[in-house]
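Q: Structure for this?
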Amino acid sequence: MRLTAVEALKHMEEGSLSSVELTEAYLSQIGSHDGDVSAYLKVTGDRARNEAADIDAKKGDRAPLAGLPTAIKDVLCTEGITTTCASKILENYEPVYTATCVRQMMDAGIVTLGKTNMDEFAMGSSTENSAYGPTRNPWDLGRVPGGSSGGSAAAVAAGEAIWALGSDTGGSIRQPAAFCGVVGLKPTYGSISRYGLIAFASSFDQVGPITKNVMDAALMMQLLVGKDPLDSTSVVYPAEIPLPVERDLSGIHMGIVKELVGEGIDPGVMTVFNEAVEKLKAAGAVIGEASLPHSEYALPAYYILAPAEASANLARFDGVRYGLRAGETNDITEMYEQTRSLGFGEEVKRRIMLGTYALSSGYYEAYYGQAQKVRTLIVKDFEQALEEFDLLISPTTPTTAFGLGEKTDDPLTMYKSDICTIPVNLAGLPAISIPAGLSGGLPVGFQIIGKAFTAPNLLQAAYSAELAFAFDKVSPLIERRDQDGI
Amino acid sequence: MKKCRIGEKKHDSCDRISSCRISERKENKHEELKELVSHDDVKYVARLARLKVEDADLDRYSRQLSSILNHIDKISELDLAEVEPTSHVLKLSNIFREDVSRPGVSRESALANGPSVENGAFRVPAILEG
């Protein structure tokens, strides 16, 4: 159960582990624990067993990811497998095409374990906004796994998937990875195709890996990056992404973002962060202080721009072409309103209204126009800081995983759990969260931010950092499994 | 000062009033929490977004949206007159492809998820009166 994707591939190639054995181990872990964790919205057990058996039956060359049991966030379209976005409005939606990133993984031989829970339409930071009930944190079932990719992060942390696909609009890969003690990478905007990713905020959304370690994240990135003719914002990745190698951090200049380590960051998180920085210094990194002077304006700007884009993107859910339809009346407006009111949850409605308000006549310039200008300032802040430093570092989240229900009454408090991750999305940069230690028994994530389209450098530095941190704790659900063997 | 209440039906007639709202807000800066979004605003915005909001929920939405917008108002501290807007982080423009046909989604597939389908088309309530 502790085998990483890279290790499992090696064992399967050597013949000491079969794809069926590996898949059965994960399905049995799902059977034992997903009743408590609820990481999955749908487990595709039969499909997984068939895929695994096919791989074992095949002779000759193995596909690059052959036999790796994978979880897929339910925001990604999968032909023949219901895709709900954790929304009632898509309860029975069965896509007629598969997202490019999922197709790439399937063509490379993964075993499909199922679709993971999330905040409805990826709007949220705790996976409590799912229409199908919350996911729980495998480290403490009374706490949230983070969000919106909470199901994917919890699945990896609970040993219910060897790795998973997530998506990150304002921190939705990194924040749950931090809360669940796993690795999560948001690639540079444009690195991975968004075709088949159900759109939330199109100028921010990006698909990425949630894995047990940095090496696995590099392996998945190798496969996923590149231009897709079906996503005109995807680009040819400018470099090969090698797997990282054992190396120290000599000569690497890292800047601690001073605005993201001050007020509002939990002291326990800061203690782990500061210890981690000392370990990086010991590994040869040159650490200095960096500044993103406008970062306090990132959250306000994001909460205009992302809901504005969402309000336009979610206009397509109107009860005509797919999904729920309510109110069979003679009045089409009545039908739209009833369908959308019944189909969307609270947070989704709130963001649609917020975005509609910001775009409405008379407010457009005051809100949307100004927020776009703030975005420019944040892009420039990062450009300047990354001229001085190779990489920027901060805690991934201001606190460790919070309790279920703790922040559901006040949307603004919930939004603030993304203060360290949102600036990165505004600038479209790549960033990774890796576990640095525990505070009060809960994982603390360490964020490393790189320059655009430099995943190889970012992954190499993150790998070296991971070696320096030597974080080897796993959730109690995996520990229990370890005691039983495999 | 000219006031704009977004809830009023004649809203379209008062264009370019964003400045009026901004100055209104600046004057009120000392107040701790302003009700930026009234019940009427909620109703108006919900109508624009084709959402139905029950009367019992108006107060909650008004309070929550106001609280979020109060936080967002922080942006008005900045002098942004000389700053160019960013709509997209990649400097991409005019992505072309060869003008050749390629396989698309079949009519059958396209209709497969339709909640109401008839004669190879999506069925909807009447749009035109008559």
